[in-house]
From TrEMBL:
Gene3D superfamilies: Aldehyde Dehydrogenase, Chain A, domain 1 (3.40.605.10), Aldehyde Dehydrogenase, Chain A, domain 2 (3.40.309.10). Residues 21-473 form the Aldehyde dehydrogenase domain. Belongs to the aldehyde dehydrogenase family. This is Aldehyde dehydrogenase family protein. InterPro entries: Ald_DH/histidinol_DH, Ald_DH_C, Ald_DH_N, Aldehyde_DH_dom, ALDH-related_metabolic_enz. One of its GO terms (molecular function) is lactaldehyde dehydrogenase (NAD+) activity. Keywords: Oxidoreductase. It comes from the Bacteria. It holds the Pfam family Aldedh.
Length: 484
């Protein structure tokens, strides 16, 4: 099928603009150019920041009912253009068409949750008379928007992860400037169009496309920008945090998530869940199952069933209804994953299935006997690779699960509530999924991790909290009212 190459504009503080230079958006499945997108300059980013600050100062109070209406209308717009959004996600990224549809559905939910949370953005009264001598004081606090939010988003969820930053920012009454991944900017631009059509105030939303090396530092370091929300790799996040200076930062930096399978687990459920968790989105998922620790007595039947189910997965055309796994985001990333697999094998690992690369595709790969010192064991592989290891008991599994510099989410399969709660309290992670893989999330829950997995929490309500600050108001009553 011949794809017509689209030429896009970027949204700069409410204005759809071209740029002096353009860059190509490539379908990683066949290296076909599907769109040309503006390559913004530092001047473009400065314009976005200055106009956003001007809009924020001009619109001193954006009414609650208007924020609700804009977010609801945007959700309706996405729903009415569902197929276009899904096809765009699939074409520019790695997801299959079925995975893309799921992301569009979640995006609609994220926007609607954002609209609902606007109503709940409240303060509370304070009992000033708890202090002796303050009997004549009364007051409260409320939360106010902090100002411009900078959002830097990755390629793997090019629509919903943008919504998870834009929805809360607008719900809180803040302007936001999005710098989407250069590999997948089209989904972010489509969402910008939805919000623009829904009536977001001029200047409150920008989606500035281009290279991070050209525009990233300006966005991160400008004093008008009050918070940086970043989703991406650990090294990039660490650099951004250092550059940001004295401002809020939210960092979701990925993981190499563990799952524990105990002997009393339902093995069929555990296999189904962990195969899906390991290989969905071609493994390019911060929640993806990367390390599985299986109690020794059920290790052989588990790995046999796991490998058999993995071999049933279909790798191929992203746009096919029958495809389970598409390509990685580009051939360079596929070669990196291939290298990590080869290094692990050189260090003693065994390939139970997979391990084959063709262009940007990696066959779903199951490794055993992986050295804990291997790169693929310690780092986030971000590809369709999983490691399975036998353990003697739960305590050994938890020790191994915690023995990395990440802690986003974890999973455990067991019917024993004592074991489940022991894992909940001892696994070093932002969430523990009991009888589910690490790859489970709803868009309302607080989402984030510990150690190298980041700072702060996403999830609409929790992001809104970080994007607002409390202001205390106190009245000294007798001096105001003059009552004798």
């Amino acid at each position: 099928m011949q794809i017509q190459v689209r030429t896009e504009k970027m949204l700069v503080a409410g204005n759809w603009l071209e740029a002096g230079a353009m860059f190509d958006v490539i379908n990683p499945q066949n290296n076909e150019v599907i769109a040309k997108v503006p390559k913004a300059t530092e001047k473009d980013m400065m314009r976005a920041i200055e106009k956003s600050e001007e809009a924020f100062r001009h619109l001193a109070s954006w009414p609650t009912h208007e924020r609700i209406k804009v977010l609801q209308k945007a959700a309706d717009y996405v729903a009415n253009d569902f197929d276009n959004f899904a096809e765009t996600i699939a074409l520019e990224g790695s997801k299959t068409i079925n995975e893309a549809r799921s992301e569009v559905t979640r995006t609609i939910q994220t926007l609607n949750i954002s609209a609902e949370e606007v109503r709940r953005l409240k303060g509370e009264t304070l009992n000033f008379d708890q202090r002796e001598g303050s009997e004549n004081r009364t007051g409260y606090y409320y939360r106010f928007p902090i100002g411009i939010i900078a959002a830097i988003t990755p390629f793997n969820d090019p629509l919903n992860l943008v919504a998870h930053k834009v929805g809360p920012a607008l719900a809180a009454g803040n302007p936001i400037i999005v710098k989407p991944a250069s590999a997948t900017p089209l989904s972010a631009l489509l969402l910008a169009k939805a919000l623009d059509e829904a009536g977001v105030p001029k200047g409150f939303l920008s989606v500035v496309t281009g290279a991070g090396s050209d525009i990233g530092d300006t966005l991160i370091t400008h004093p008008f920008v009050k918070m940086v929300s970043f989703t991406g790799g650990f090294e990039a996040g660490e650099k951004i945090a250092h550059k940001a200076g004295l401002k809020k930062v939210a960092m979701e930096l990925g993981s190499n998530s563990p799952v524990i399978v105990l002997k009393d687990a339902c093995l069929s459920d555990a296999v189904i869940s962990t195969v899906s968790g390991a290989f969905s989105a071609a493994g390019q998922n911060c929640l993806g199952v990367q390390r599985i620790f299986v109690e020794e007595s059920v290790y052989k039947p588990f790995i046999s069933a796991f490998v058999d189910r993995t071999k049933e997965l279909t790798v191929g055309d992203k746009m096919s209804e029958w495809t389970d796994i598409g390509p990685l985001i580009n051939e360079k990333e596929a070669k990196r994953v291939e290298t990590w697999i080869e290094e692990a094998v050189f260090e003693g690992a065994v390939i139970e299935t997979g391990g084959i690369r063709e262009r940007a595709y990696i066959q779903p790969t199951v490794l055993t006997q992986v050295s804990p010192q291997s790169t693929i064991y310690q780092e986030e592989v971000f590809g369709p690779v999983v490691m399975i290891e036998p353990v003697r008991h739960l305590k050994e599994a938890i020790k191994k699960a915690n023995d990395v510099n990440y802690g986003l989410q974890a999973g455990i399969f067991t019917k024993n509530m004592d074991h489940a709660f022991y894992a909940v309290h001892h696994l070093q992670s932002g969430a523990v999924m009991v009888n589910d893989s690490s790859d489970y999330r709803i868009d309302e829950m607080p989402f984030g991790g510990v150690k190298g997995s980041g700072l702060g929490r996403e999830g609409v309500r929790y992001a809104i909290h970080d994007m607002t600050d409390p202001k205390v108001v106190c009245f000294k009553i007798d001096s105001m009212w003059g009552v004798s």
